[in-house]
Write a structure and sequence with these properties.
The protein is built from 7 helices and 18 strands. It is of the alpha+beta class. Helix 1 runs antiparallel to helix 2.
Length: 303
């Protein structure tokens, strides 16, 4: 890999980067070895130039937002990790909010509140970016990105670009057309509705209270560890099979909400993966349901 060439490109164009950056510093799980190079472009143009260099020199690329749904290998990640967190502007025009992919969902929700726009309250408190949320069609408390997205711009690792309307995104439960493709979301537009500011604010506060009461926010995690199996709730199945508090090393099934695997302080990727397998096998044996991980596992394969 021509990492030196990529490093020189970043230096020349004032693109922020860090070599051999520990990914535990950039994931909500606080787990993960070093990326060969960690790059945080501030504009679409910087992003495209980095992608072009990586393509030309065969450097693997992985895109992240806030790292809130990732489990990174203890051995780190080959190639370049590109964080879109600095591409984060948010603007409001009538009932539409346009934001760059790296904008925090909480910032988008606050912008909606400021303009008395309703429809995005469900996303307040989801610890991710707008782009990451659309990528996996994130949702909570009866809402999801599919219900508010209008369109999104993207670039590809080959340098092409385009815009997709909501109808072309193949949005389903925790999935979209962006998964398993080389399209990288750069900007998105949400369509909301005018509402009562006090009611919107109260709903946001209510959902924040619910999250604090029911979710183990005091510990690092990647949110819900498993997707909801059809006809069931993952947390209920896990609790029913006596797995609350089950632990491998520093990873544990939360006592507060069995749907969360948490990092109690010293968890490794290997700990979490072993606990995921234990939970899957126990629930499969007990109820005949195979839980599918929602957390995205990335990095070198030797952990």
């Amino acid at each position: 890999m021509e990492l030196n060439t990529l490093t020189e490109l970043c230096k020349k164009n004032n693109i922020p980067y860090k070599p051999f950056e520990p990914m535990r510093l950039h994931t909500s799980f606080k787990i993960g070895g070093a990326a060969d190079i960690f790059i945080t472009p501030e504009t679409k143009e910087q992003l495209v130039s980095v992608l072009s260099c990586c393509k030309e020199y065969g450097i693997p690329v992985f895109i992240i937002g806030n790292g809130s749904n990732l489990l990174v290998s203890d051995s780190g990640i080959d190639g370049a990790v590109i964080s879109l967190s600095k591409m984060n502007t948010v603007s409001v025009n009538g009932c539409e909010i346009t934001c760059l992919a790296g904008a925090a969902l909480s910032a988008v929700c606050r912008a909606a509140l400021s303009s008395s726009l309703t429809g995005a309250e469900f996303a307040y408190g989801i610890p991710g970016t707008a782009g990451g949320a659309l990528y996996m069609n994130a949702g909570a408390y009866g809402g999801e990105m599919a219900g508010i997205i209008k369109d999104a711009d993207y670039v590809t690792k080959n340098g092409s670009s385009g815009t997709l309307s909501a109808n072309d995104m193949r949005l389903g439960y925790r999935t979209s057309v962006f998964k398993n493709s080389d399209m990288i979301i750069t900007r998105l537009t949400l369509t909301l509705k005018k509402g009562d500011k006090a009611e919107i604010e109260e709903k946001m506060k209510e959902l924040t209270r619910k999250r604090r009461e029911k979710q183990p926010l005091e510990y690092p995690s990647a949110g819900s560890t498993f997707k909801r199996p059809e006809g069931y709730f993952a947390g209920t199945l896990i609790e029913k099979n006596g797995l609350k508090g089950a632990a491998v090393g520093g990873a544990a099934v939360s006592e507060k909400h069995a749907g969360f695997i948490i990092n109690t302080g010293s968890a490794t990727c290997g700990d979490v993966k072993a606990l995921i397998k234990q939970v899957q096998q126990t629930v499969l044996n007990g109820d005949g349901v195979l839980l599918e991980p929602e957390v995205i596992q990335i990095g070198r394969s030797d952990s």
